[in-house]
Amino acid sequence: MPEAYEEFEAASLFCPRCRKAVPVRKKLLLVLPTGTKYDYLCAECGAPVGGKLDQDPTEFRRIAPLPGPPGGRGGGRPRGRSRSVPSRNVTGPSPNEEEWPWPRRPSSP
Which of 22, 24, 40, 99 stands the most exposed, by the fewest C-beta atoms within 10 Å? Predict the structure, then answer.
């Protein structure tokens, strides 16, 4: 007989602190090569009320860096411009103007 359900997702569990069945929030704890570990938290008081280990390793493969060639530079920081650094405002004040937000360093001889 084929399996009817591949996995279950908890909607409510018993909370020992609240002493009743309550809705739960799923919180990611670990991403492992064998699967992903989640913790279920009470939506009312935040106490941990259960856990789940997902046996699907695709999340780990998605975020783990691929190994580089032997003896080469693999993993690490990607090449190119970082997207987290904003570009310089070309139309704004130059570093020599008075409204510069921090003091200038003294020039070295």
Answer: 99
Q: How far apart are CA 23 and CA 28, in angstroms?
A: 17
pTM of the entire predicted model: 0.52
Residue 39 near residue 49 (C-beta atoms within 8 A): no
Q: In the sheet where 48-54 sits, what is the strand order?
A: 12-15, 20-32, 35-42, 48-54
pLDDT, tens only, 18-76: 999 999 999 999 888 888 899 999 999 999 999 999 888 777 777 776 666 665 555 55
CB 17 within 8 A of CB 47: yes
Residue 1 has pLDDT above 80, yes or no: no
* Residues near 30 by beta carbon (within 8 Å), at least 6 away in sequence: 36, 37
**Residue 14 CB partners (closer than 8 Å, separation 6+):** 20, 21, 22, 49
